[in-house]
């Protein structure tokens, strides 16, 4: 990493994966949950059916903690390799998907316990140990009442900025989940959605990881359309949605498609009062990573087709295999747009982030 | 319809839905299949869980045959309302999805019989009665050996231009189906994919039709990526794929996404020898309908981002509710691009269409 000190502008990174080990969660769990992990080696069911892709699986090989612990498990190593080296102003922690309480199919009560334990562990070991790190409230969304209680319990922590919903096989716009949005809005928390490991091929998995990953934006579109057409943003007009880790290039066509469909089918959803593209502009943000390789001209065409330069936010996805470096991921886009993408769009999105705009030294 | 004689250029319409009634298929069926329809009123299982949308359900209200038969069931009415009035040079019949033999889950043998009956009915009543109409070979793709026999049987008919695969919940790139592509290539037949009624929401249906329809391109992306990453176009280098009825705006982002994924994951699919965007440019065509409402500038940006003006082809989707008129669907795009989209891209795609380029009278 020879990138140190090249950073010229504020960087707010909307997708950093800290990783817990089950052992670390034990002190935060009561029995019987503790015993299931300690005595029976319970682990969350895994979904991805693909063999390991590279030297470190889904992680960057060089991000493994030097003492052998998995990538993302150590704050000081992350500080050194990511935050200090790149010069982050702020980063949002999004968990490693294991555990992902909202993705658990069995026993909701254990999901609830794990969410609580995770949040306590996250606050104690990360949010209160580095000023730059902000957190995601993990919940067991399949049990909205418990999710609301957890949002009440930790949502007003000054470093908690969003409620995390995994993109799995539940469309979150369903009214069953609306109490979660009501609680999030009340606490000025964004809804952050990050894909877990959904079977995205008519409910099955395709043959190859490259196929699964190529159609990953599909699962994001399902969630955005679910939220919009179920009227979530009419019910909760201050709610914001961050769609994390599907890039942004799918957004322009999707805005056009939803608008065209809404024009001819809006009688079906009379509670939706505005054009979907307008709802996207006001309520939905997406992150760059994994960014498609684009020329400056192509990048700007996609932005123009959104009719807004405030939708796209930057993320690295550290420490995963397809990490995007802020120094290399994007073509030169001009000072104003780069400031928005690298920091200011995220700053507007998350009201708890520092309001100051960092002085550009260039 | 006051559109008559406004037509200034050749129009090749890649999506016209002729409709059969089960009664009409009876003479083309042997027993026991005939008896299942006649004696037990067998109909294909239906999938869409939504209430009827308008006066004529999924059809244009004014397209119902005046004697009460369903829209698309009568050649002379279609000639009058569509072909003569608009001035089609050619149109490709794609069936009405009922029956859709490749979408049937039960008893393959009946699907095979229905495909054969459908093709005979189509040839006799449509293809041989109007010079402008070209046909799709219906098959029972779930039984590739029978599908190959049916392609052998009718694929060399001079008016049969493609093999029809419904977009349902089977990803067609799977090697199990490759004999179909081998037979199609041998007969100079395009593979035409048209969505049937796939549960496109993690294998389920969303709450509303507007959601289902807004994410319809997802199922097309699944099929295109399945065909590309399973190496179909390397195995069958002359094969072409027409993706019908998901519009075209999803294509640029999807090309970029597949390219970016292929760059980092191509070790998984070493049989894929070229960038996916390059495969799309050479092998995949998409139809305009249901076209998103775009300004000329937006339309041209999407075309530019594909780096090819030969991918997009015109379709009306007659007689369905969201029919696109060639006089109103697209913004003005300039003579050269309009000629390509309205006719010449389709003419290149289907080698059996007349080669002459119609004189533009403007």
TrEMBL record, chains A, B:
Q: Which residues form the Amidohydrolase-related domain?
A: 47-351
Q: Tell me a GO cellular component.
A: cytoplasm
Q: In which domain of life is the source organism classified?
A: Bacteria
Q: Give the UniProt keywords, A-Z.
A: Hydrolase, Lyase
Q: Which residues form a coiled coil?
A: none
Q: Does the keyword Iron-sulfur apply?
A: no
Q: Which BP terms does GO give this entry?
A: secondary metabolic process
Q: Does the keyword Hydrolase apply?
A: yes
InterPro entries with a match to the protein in the record: ACMSD, Amidohydro-rel, Metal_Hydrolase
GO molecular function: any one? hydrolase activity
The name this protein goes by in its record: Predicted metal-dependent hydrolase, TIM-barrel fold
């Amino acid at each position: 990493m020879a990138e140190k000190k090249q950073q010229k502008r504020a960087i707010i990174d909307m997708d950093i994966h800290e990783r817990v080990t089950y052992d670390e969660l034990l002190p935060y769990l009561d029995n019987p949950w503790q015993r299931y992990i300690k005595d029976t080696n319970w682990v969350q069911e895994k979904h991805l059916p693909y063999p390991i892709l590279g030297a470190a699986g889904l992680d960057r090989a060089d991000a493994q903690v030097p003492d052998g612990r998995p990538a993302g498990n150590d704050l000081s190593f992350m500080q050194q390799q990511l935050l200090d080296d790149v010069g982050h102003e702020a980063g949002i922690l999004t968990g490693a998907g294991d555990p992902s309480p909202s993705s658990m199919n069995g026993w909701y009560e254990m999901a609830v316990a794990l969410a609580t334990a995770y949040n306590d562990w996250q606050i104690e070991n990360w949010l209160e140990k580095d000023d730059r790190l902000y957190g995601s409230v993990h919940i067991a969304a399949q049990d909205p009442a418990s999710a609301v209680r957890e949002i009440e319990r930790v949502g007003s922590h000054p470093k908690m900025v969003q409620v995390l919903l995994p993109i799995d096989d539940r469309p979150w716009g369903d009214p069953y989940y609306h109490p979660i949005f009501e609680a999030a809005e009340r606490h000025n928390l964004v809804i952050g959605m990050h894909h877990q490991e959904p079977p995205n091929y008519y409910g099955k998995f395709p043959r190859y990881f490259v196929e699964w990953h190529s159609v990953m934006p599909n699962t994001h579109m399902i969630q955005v359309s679910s939220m919009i057409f179920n009227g979530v943003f009419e019910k909760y007009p201050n709610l914001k949605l961050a769609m994390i880790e599907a890039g942004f290039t799918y957004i322009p066509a999707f805005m056009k498609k939803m608008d065209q469909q809404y024009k001819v089918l809006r009688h079906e959803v009379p509670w939706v009062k505005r054009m979907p593209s307008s709802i996207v502009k006001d309520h939905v943000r997406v992150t760059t990573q994994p960014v498609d390789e684009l020329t400056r001209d192509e990048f700007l065409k996609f932005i123009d087709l959104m009719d807004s330069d405030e939708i796209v936010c930057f993320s690295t996805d550290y420490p995963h295999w397809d990490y995007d470096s802020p120094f290399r991921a994007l073509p030169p886009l001009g000072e104003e747009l780069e400031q928005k993408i690298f920091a200011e769009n995220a700053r507007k999105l998350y009201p708890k982030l520092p309001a100051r705009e960092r002085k550009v030294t260039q």
